[in-house]
Amino acid sequence: MGAPVWVAWTVAVLAVLVGFPFAWFSTPLGTRSATNLLLRAYRRDGLEAVEQQYLSKLAPRRAGLQLFNLGLALDRAGDQDGAHVVYRHAADRGSPPAMVKLGDRLTRHGDDDEAQEWYRRAAEAAESS
Questions:
Q1: 93 close to 61: Cβ distance less than 8 angstroms
Q2: Which of 58, 80, 93, 111 is most open to solvent, judged by the fewest CB atoms within 10 Å of its CB?
Q3: Phi, then psi, of 94 in degrees rounded to 5
Q4: Exposure of 128 by Cβ count < 10 A (0-12 exposed, 13-18 middle, 19+ buried)?
């Protein structure tokens, strides 16, 4: 890409703060930068602050996608409980991948009825997209 890392971070922060869907923000580097920004804010300030500061200006579905990416980052970092909560918030905002992840987690914990409901909602959301 050639741009210094600080430029990528600056664009990521601006995209999150302003809520514009910059094309760069959808690239793998942009997504990673935004996810890292959210992960650091989550660890520093908690989920409620992340949702208010960074995601409140985004459309619910886009905010759900950002939360889903945060959940994946927490999963990779070994924070299973945090990931579960974040997946639930992302699913509540209409993210089909988060609905599936949440359903998988609920199935593993023996809550098959709620898991089936999330799978059904994910399928409906995917059909309507």
A1: yes
A2: 80
A3: 95, 20
A4: exposed
Integer angstrom CA distances of residue 13 from 1, 20, 58, 109: 18, 11, 13, 36
Q: How far is it, in rounded angstroms, from Cα 52 to Cα 68?
A: 16
Cβ neighbours of 38 (radius 10 Å): 25
Residues 2-46 have pLDDT tens digits of 556 666 666 666 665 655 544 444 555 656 778 888 999 999 999
SS3 127: helix
* Rounded CA separation 6/62 (Å): 24
49-98 pLDDT, tens per residue? Answer: 999 998 998 888 889 999 999 999 999 999 999 999 999 999 999 999 99
Q: What is the rounded end-to-end Cα distance, in angstroms, of the chain? A: 32
Sequence-distant (≥ 6) Cβ neighbours of residue 47 within 8 angstroms? 82, 85, 86, 89
